[in-house]
Design goal:
The protein has 342 residues and is an alpha/beta fold. It has two domains: 195 residues, Periplasmic binding protein-like II (D-Maltodextrin-Binding Protein, domain 2, 3-Layer(aba) Sandwich); 99 residues, D-Maltodextrin-Binding Protein, domain 2, CATH 3.40.190.10. The protein is 44% helix and 15% strand. The chain has 13 helices and ten strands. A five-stranded mixed sheet has the order 2-1-3-10-4, with helices on both faces. Helix 6 links the parallel strand 6 and strand 7.
Length: 342
């Protein structure tokens, strides 16, 4: 009897061990598929208008329909989100492509796989009564003006290049560097004549406090793309299937919004960030302004996200002029159209 009980207990242990090994084997076999279809994206900042299509794709279930499990993380600046990408903490970053180009030049192995805001949003915010009316105004219009800019950001480097292009002597302008978090409040306070900023982002936020308009660096010849999707170069092949689906859903969302669904995009942000104090009016205005920057002359009539080699050739020249990348950089180092059909 004792032998029979011992045999029974031993058999149960063996069966349990075999069952466990099968479960672990199955889990191990399924893990790569789950990893391939799970993607985390970090945006450049807390939610604002330009993020609308991304949140819309999630809200509509277009990622899930493609078999993807997508997590959207709010960023703390393009540079910070790129660092997360480089450290393999996220799979994709929605960031300023000029900041990405500077990171590539410093050795970060990343690349843009879709450019959605293909005309630059960097420029100078000016009050409505400013004598400066356009990016090509005479240098005398800038003389003595107090212009605040964000210290340490790519915008400040682009500002220097812009002044050179429009023949404004740097020492003829009173340039005041501040922490980026203090830029808006410094400008709204009224003690300065202008602010270097991403115009489409800031103008809707301060228009009711200090009515303003912006001039874009691009209008002065400094042509640099704005926001797009960036990945690690190694993942271009390693995660190609999932990335293709992700980009396709984003392209669909951008086209859907371009076709007149701005309100739906803003609703999607608010629905997914219910604890944030988001201003619907501001975000709507931001997205509408960014939609004006979706195209360059070279990309009109192409799919959202598609990137033009000529635009990137101009961009590399501008970024070299700004000192953000070294001379002689090849445009193909910074972008690919592998996942976007023209």
């Amino acid at each position: 009897m004792q032998n029979l009980e011992l045999f029974t207990r031993t058999l149960k242990v063996i069966v349990a061990a075999v069952f466990a090994s099968v479960i672990f084997a199955l889990a191990g076999a399924s893990a790569p598929a789950q990893t391939q279809n799970s993607l985390t994206i970090a945006t450049d900042w807390a939610p604002y208008g330009a993020h609308g299509p991304l949140f819309l794709a999630a809200q509509k279930g277009w990622f899930k329909d493609a078999g993807l499990d997508v997590t959207i993380l709010d960023g703390k600046g393009s540079s910070s989100s790129l660092q997360l990408l480089g450290a393999e903490k996220v799979d994709i970053a929605f960031v300023q492509l000029s900041t990405m180009a500077a990171a590539v030049d410093k050795g970060m192995p990343v690349i843009s796989i879709a450019g959605f805001i293909r005309s630059g949003d960097n420029g100078i915010m000016l009050p409505l009564d400013s004598p400066i009316k356009s990016a090509t105004d005479s240098a005398k219009d800038f003389v003595g003006k107090r212009i605040v800019y964000p210290s340490g950001g790519s915008s400040s480097s682009l500002m220097e290049a812009f002044f050179r292009l429009v023949n404004v002597a740097r020492d003829s302008v009173n340039l005041i560097g501040v922490d980026p978090s203090a830029l808006a409040s410094t400008y709204v306070a009224g003690g300065v004549d202008g602010a270097v900023t991403t115009v489409a982002y800031l103008e809707p936020m301060i228009s009711d406090k200090r009515p303003s308009r912006g001039i874009f660096f691009a209008d002065g010849g400094l042509v640099v793309p704005s926001f797009g999707l960036v990945i690690r170069k190694a993942d271009e092949n390693a995660k190609s299937a999932a990335l293709a689906k992700f980009v396709a859903a984003n392209v669909r969302a951008w086209q859907y919004v371009i076709d007149g669904r701005v309100d739906e995009a803003i609703d999607a942000i608010i629905a997914q960030r219910p604890m944030e104090r988001l201003d619907r009016g501001v975000m709507t205005s931001q997205l509408k302004q960014y939609l004006k920057l979706v195209d360059t002359p070279a990309t009109k009539g192409t799919a959202p996200g598609w990137q033009d080699e000529g635009d990137w050739t101009k961009a590399t020249a501008a970024l070299e002029s700004a000192g953000l990348i070294k001379p002689g950089s090849a445009p193909k180092n910074y972008y690919t159209n592998r996942f976007v059909s023209k």
